[in-house]
Design brief:
Layout lengths: L8 E9 L5 E10 L4 E5 L6 H7 L7 E6 L2 E2 L5 H7 E4 L12 H11 L4 H14 L15 H13 L5 E5 L7 H12 L4 E5 L3 H7 L2 E6 L2 E7 H5 L2 H6 L6
């Protein structure tokens, strides 16, 4: 068992129900070590997105969620949201400024950093995504793959300790998907990826958790879980 003091993410006995009564999480436990890359997989409605939205306090259920030494409570939300970078499936949910630079600079500006530091963070984040030549382009004129890389850069500019990605490869053509996988492999933050793309999981995440009906039904080495055809079939997943 990983000890508490060395955890990047800790979720204990997390329950959550939406206002319409739908129960999305049923006592989920999850521990992630610093630098670990973890995949969350499962059928639609399994609770993957609901779980991720608890990691930076967008949703609040019953149970305990901590990022490093900080519990996800109202008093800590500003620090939590700087530490947890959330990348949504649709990049248009994150790109709203006239220029790429403005989108990537938004987070560092919100953190109150100096103009010099903001510019440097924007440069570094775009460089990590190989998007530096796009600095003064208009985000909404880019391809889906380019938008996804810019959306990731908006989060990297805040230098998070935990990077959370929801279906990062969804909708991408094979070339854009391959580029994204290689870029994600080069990143250093602790990473949680919710996805149906099990080939991406094989390439990026040594550990996988299968969620189904709001519960973590399996947690182990990716190679072991993805080779268990009966387990995958039981939880609405197709073998790679």
């Amino acid at each position: 068992m990983v000890q508490k003091h060395c955890l990047a993410v800790e979720v204990r006995a997390l329950h959550f129900a939406y206002p319409d009564g739908h129960v999305a999480l049923r006592g989920v436990d999850l521990c992630v070590a610093p630098g670990e890359r973890l995949a969350l997989v499962g059928p639609n409605g399994a609770g993957k997105s609901t779980l991720m939205l608890h990691l930076n306090g967008i949703l609040k259920g019953q149970g305990k969620v901590s990022i490093g030494d900080l519990e996800v409570i109202e008093a800590n939300l500003r620090r939590i949201r700087a530490a947890v970078g959330m990348v949504f499936q649709n990049p248009d949910d994150q790109l709203f400024s006239p220029r790429v630079f403005d989108d990537v600079a938004y987070g560092p500006l919100y953190m109150g950093l100096s103009e010099v530091e903001v510019k440097e963070r924007v440069r570094r984040a775009l460089q990590q995504m190989y998007m530096e030549p796009y600095t003064y382009r208009t985000s909404h004129h880019l391809s889906l793959g380019e938008k996804k890389r810019i959306a990731i850069a908006t989060v990297l500019a805040m230098e998070p300790s935990v990077l959370v990605l929801d279906e990062p490869s969804a909708g991408l053509d094979p070339r854009a998907r391959r580029v994204l996988i290689e870029l994600l492999r080069g990143l250093t933050p602790t990473m949680l990826i919710s996805t149906h793309d099990l080939r991406l999981v094989q390439e990026i995440c040594p550990r996988t958790v299968i969620l189904d009906e709001g519960q973590a039904v399996a947690d182990g080495p990716t190679a072991t879980l993805l080779s268990d055809e009966a387990l995958l079939a039981a939880h609405g997943l197709e073998p790679v």
